[in-house]
Amino acid sequence: MPQNLKILGRDDFSPSTFALEVYHPQLAIAARPGQFVIVIVSRGAERIPLTIADFDREKGTITLVIQAVGQSTKQMQDEMVVGASFLAVVGPMGIPSKIGHAKKVVCVGGGLGVAPLFPQLRAHKENGAYVMGVVGFRNENFLFWEKKFASYCDELIICTDDGSAGIKGLVTLGLEQSISKHDDIDEVVAIGPPIMMKAVAETTRPHAIKTVVSLNPIMVDGTGMCGGCRVRIGEETKFGCVDGPDFDGHQVDFDDLMTRLRRFAADEHLALERWQESCLAKGVTSGKENR
Q1: Span between the terminal Cα atoms of the chain, in Å
Q2: Which long-range contacts (CB under 8 A, 24 or more apart) does 10-13 make?
Q3: Among candidate residues 94, 53, 35, 32, the one with its CA nearest the CA of residue 238
Q4: Which of 105, 117, 169, 208 has the fewest C-beta atoms under 10 angstroms from its C-beta?
């Protein structure tokens, strides 16, 4: 029997985006839509929060979708191949999404936010809702899980920046089409970059449609102790890890969130440069080249 935390499957969607299927039966049983985990690749490595993109209770696995942009995620891209194991995976963390009794829901995902949108979309469909999916990608080369989403969507709109797949435009264009077609939408769920979620919230605001967004602020311990994941929700300060990650999109101060996310950009860039230099000095071969 495979050991816990072992990578049972891997799927590379693009040069920078990949999915890992991780064996962890206890976590697979406990996981709910909207929750996240914190992973550690190796001893001394950074703690990385990742929203659970899928879970299979029968197989005992969870699926994580990662974009390699910094030192830690690039290390994960190189080292986390089939057969490898994480040092630690902690979770599920965060408050599960409230699926409720909405009869008609639009689920909007952009970029990497498409993956963690899937469990929520599936849960709404299994709860009896009419589900519309609106997912956006840079171009057709970055498109993934189209059939997976379509199997749980009554309507699916794919948006690409260049029009190479689906319609040309941002996800807000697809959302606007859904709103114009349906005047009885109960809820909109949005996951993606903060600028995208802000645009979604502003699109639904004039229509007074309930809008839930999933936030991924800077996070260290995932317990609210470090305070790094502070977000401003209306007049209150909340913690993304223990009060979220789901919040009312019409109450989120997205400008403050985006400012906080840029706070350590220079440090992250420096850490990536040092790691790349270290790999070159050691003559390390990328895991991608060995698969």
Answers
A1: 23
A2: 10/80, 10/81, 10/82, 10/291, 11/144, 12/288, 13/65, 13/142, 13/144
A3: 94
A4: 208
Residue 8 has what pLDDT? Answer: 94
Question: H or E stretch including 47?
Answer: none
* Partners of 90 in beta bridges: 38
Q: What is the DSSP letter of 70?
A: S
CB-CB neighbours of 120 under 10 Å: 24
Helix (H) or strand (E) holding 285: none
**Cα four-point dihedral sign 10, 13, 14, 19:** negative
Position 277 pLDDT exceeds 60: no
3-state secondary structure of 61: strand
Q: Which ranges of the chain would DSSP assign to H, the alpha helix?
A: 25-30, 71-79, 114-126, 146-150, 171-181, 194-204, 240-243, 254-261, 265-282, 287-290
Task: Say if residues 244 and 231 touch (Cβ distance below 8 Å).
Answer: yes
Kindly provide the b/e burial profile for residues 141-178, where b requires at least 16 CB atoms within 10 angstroms of the residue's own CB: ebbbbbeebeebbebbbbbbeeeebbbebbbbebbbbb
Q: Closest by alpha carbon to 203, among 106, 59, 89?
A: 106
For residues 2 and 23, which has the higher predicted lDDT (pLDDT)? 23
pLDDT band at 222 (very low <50, low <70, confident <90, very high): low
Q: How many helices (H) and strands (E) does the chain have?
A: 10, 16
3-state DSSP assignment of residue 80: coil
- Cα separation, 24 vs 61, in Å, equals 5
All domains of the chain in start order, with CATH: 7-94 (2.40.30.10), 104-261 (3.40.50.80)
